[in-house]
Amino acid sequence: MQSKTDQWSSRLGFILSSAGAAIGLGAIWKFPYMTGMHGGGAFFFLFIIFTIIIGLPLLIAEFIIGRGAQKEAVSAYTKLAPNTITRHVGKLGVMGAFILMSFYSVVGGWVFTYGVMSIPGKIISESAD
């Protein structure tokens, strides 16, 4: 008997959720600004090209693997190639997400700290010296 798996209610919701999980706000706002301001426009152009050439096919491949296996990352790669080293790819993805989450925990701490400090007005601008 095949179990029913949850599905996204719309394609747009899935795409937005995937993009939100994969793209940080720094990559959208700060990175292009900083590279442009410091003479890195050519680097940013190459970054966009390689993201399209390498990142997009990998993203599509991962969608295909997940859709075909109808399982989460670890089980999908195990189903794809049991008894091979490929089954560890899903575990690497989970570990990578854990490491990335630890970074965002630090950023969340900064946001919380500065938010609390801003209530009584204890944040001092560097230009106020």
Describe, in plain words, how this protein is organized in 3D.
The chain has 129 residues and is an all-alpha fold. The chain has one domain. It is 72% helix and 0% strand. It is built from five helices and no strands. The chain has helices at 11-22, 25-37, 41-69, 73-80, 88-118. The protein is extended, with a radius of gyration of 20 Å.
Spell out the key features of this protein.
mainly alpha, 129 residues, 5 helices
Task: Report the total helices.
Answer: 5
Average pLDDT for all residues: 80
Distance between the termini: 71 Å
- Beta-strand proportion: under 5%
User: What is the share of helical residues?
Assistant: over 70%
The Cα radius of gyration reads 20 Å
Q: From N to C, what is the helix and strand string?
A: HHHHH
Residue stretches low in confidence (pLDDT < 50, at least 5 long) are none
Class by alpha and beta content: mainly alpha
Number of strands: 0
**Biggest pleated sheet:** none
Number of individual domains: 1
Principal-axis shape equals extended
Give the secondary structure arrangement, pairings included.
Layout lengths: L10 H12 L2 H13 L3 H29 L3 H8 L7 H31 L11
Helix pairs in contact: 3-4, 4-5
Short description:
With 129 residues, the chain is an all-alpha fold. Helices cover 72% and strands 0% of the residues. The radius of gyration is 20 Å and the shape is extended.
